[in-house]
Amino acid sequence: MQTQKIPLSPPTLEEIALVLQSPLAANHKHATVEVVPCPDLREAPFHLATQGLSGDEKISDVGGQPNLFPKPRLECKWSMIDIARAMEMDPHGGGLLGAGAGPYHVVGRNCELVPNISWNNGFDNVTNGTRYAQIKEGKPSVGQCPSVDCALMINLYGSRGDPGPVIKVTAKGRVGEERSITECIQKALAHAYGDRTVSVGGVFVVKKGKAYYHIMPDFPPEDELPWNNAKQVNDWLTFHEFEAPIVCLSVLHSADPEKKLGLRMEHTHCTSMEGKDVGGHYHGDIDGKIEYEGYFNVAQTLYRIEQPKTIIERDSRD
Q1: CA 164 from chain center: how many Å?
Q2: Over the Cα atoms of the chain, what is R_g?
Q3: Which of 45, 214, 223, 306 sits at 20 to 30 Å (Cα–Cα) from 248?
Q4: Model's pTM, two decimal places?
Q5: From edge to edge, which strands make up the β-sheet containing 266-271?
C-alpha cells in the first residue's frame, strides 16, 4: 500500500485537556475535560474491541473523498488488517477504531462503516466488532459486519489497546452554535495549535437527546454520474434524526501537515449497541438537549495511505 509516515510531536494530554475546556464549556451548559485512567471500554455502553486506547498510538487516513466524487471508484477497497500492517502496528496485539465507507462488495450495497477490531497473537486472530449502517428497502438498517474490509475512504485510530491515561470529556445542554461536539473539539485544537498537527481518536456516547446523521444509500446508476457539484452529492445522501443512546467513533486533526496530505479533518461514525437500526455519519445535535461522555487519546504517528490523485488527474486518466 502506498504509505507516507509522518512522526508527530503531540502535546501532553493535560495540555490538550486545558485547550479543550474553555471552548467546550462555552458551547454547553455543563462541560468537563480531565485526564483520567481509561475505563474498560469493552464494557457497556461502549463495547469496543480493545480495553483501552493506549500503547503505540497511531492514526491513519486511507483513501479519501475523491474516491467517491465525482464518481465512485469501486476498485478502491482494502482490508483493515492490511492497513494495520501499513501502520506498522504490533502483530502481537492491538486494535483499530474509526469511521469509513463500508465493504459494498461484502454487504451487497454501499454503507457507512463503524470500524471496531482487535487482534491478539497475530493478525489472523481478529475480534471483529465492526458494524455498518445502510439504507435497505428505503429504511435505515444496522448490522454486524462479517468482514474486516472497507472501501473508498477510512479514518482509523490504532493502539495496542492497553489501559492508560486518556482525556475524558463530558458535555450537557448545548448553548452555543456548534452542534457537533467533535467539530467543537477539532476547531479548538486548530485554534490552539495552528499549523502544528495534533491528531486525536476515541469514542463517545450520546447518552441523552437526539442527533442528526447521514447514511449513504447504494451507489447511483451510471447514467446519473458523474456528480458535478457538492449539492448533487448532498441530495443523494439520506439524513436521519436518531434518539440516544448511540456510540460514536471519531478521528480528527488540528491541521493537515503542510496542507498537502488531503486529510479529512474530522470523521465520526456511530451505531446503536442495543440492536436498534440507528447509526451513520454524525453531524450534531438537533435542539441542544444533548448529553455526551467520551474518551480520547493523541497519536504519536500519522500515516497517509493510498492518497487519491486529484480530480483533475483522475479525469485526464479516465
Answers
A1: 21
A2: 18
A3: 306
A4: 0.95
A5: 28-37, 165-174, 291-298, 199-208, 246-253, 266-271, 279-285, 210-215, 238-243
Angle, CA of 299, 172 and 165, to the nearest 5°: 30
For the record, the C-alpha cell of 303 comes out as 500515516
Q: What angle do CA 107, 279, 183 make, to 5 degrees?
A: 120
Residue whose cell numbers read 451507489: 219
- Which sign, positive or negative, has the C-alpha torsion 215, 218, 219, 224? negative
- d(Cα 292, Cα 270) in Å, to the nearest integer? 13
Which residue in the block uniquely carries the three cell numbers 456528480? 227
From first to last of its 318 residues, the chain has per-residue pLDDT tens of 999 999 999 999 999 999 999 999 999 999 999 999 999 999 999 999 999 999 999 999 999 999 999 999 999 999 999 999 999 999 999 999 999 999 999 999 999 999 999 999 999 999 999 999 999 999 999 999 999 999 999 999 999 999 999 999 999 999 999 999 999 999 999 999 999 999 999 999 999 999 999 999 999 999 999 999 989 999 999 999 999 999 999 999 999 998 999 999 999 999 999 999 999 999 999 999 999 999 999 999 999 999 998 643 333 333
Closest CA to 281 of 265, 268, 271: 268
- In what helix (H) or strand (E) does residue 280 lie, and over which residues does it extend? strand 279-285
Return the amino acid letter for 253.
H
3-state class of 283 per DSSP?
strand
Cβ proximity of 49 and 158 under 8 Å = no
With H, G, I as helix, E, B as strand and everything else as coil, classify residue 30. Answer: strand
Question: Can you tell me the distance from the alpha carbon of 99 to that of 256, in angstroms, rounded to the nearest whole number?
Answer: 18
Q: For residues 238 and 254, what is the distance between their CA atoms, to the nearest angstrom? A: 28
Q: Which domains does the chain have, with CATH numbers?
A: 3-317 (3.30.1330.80)
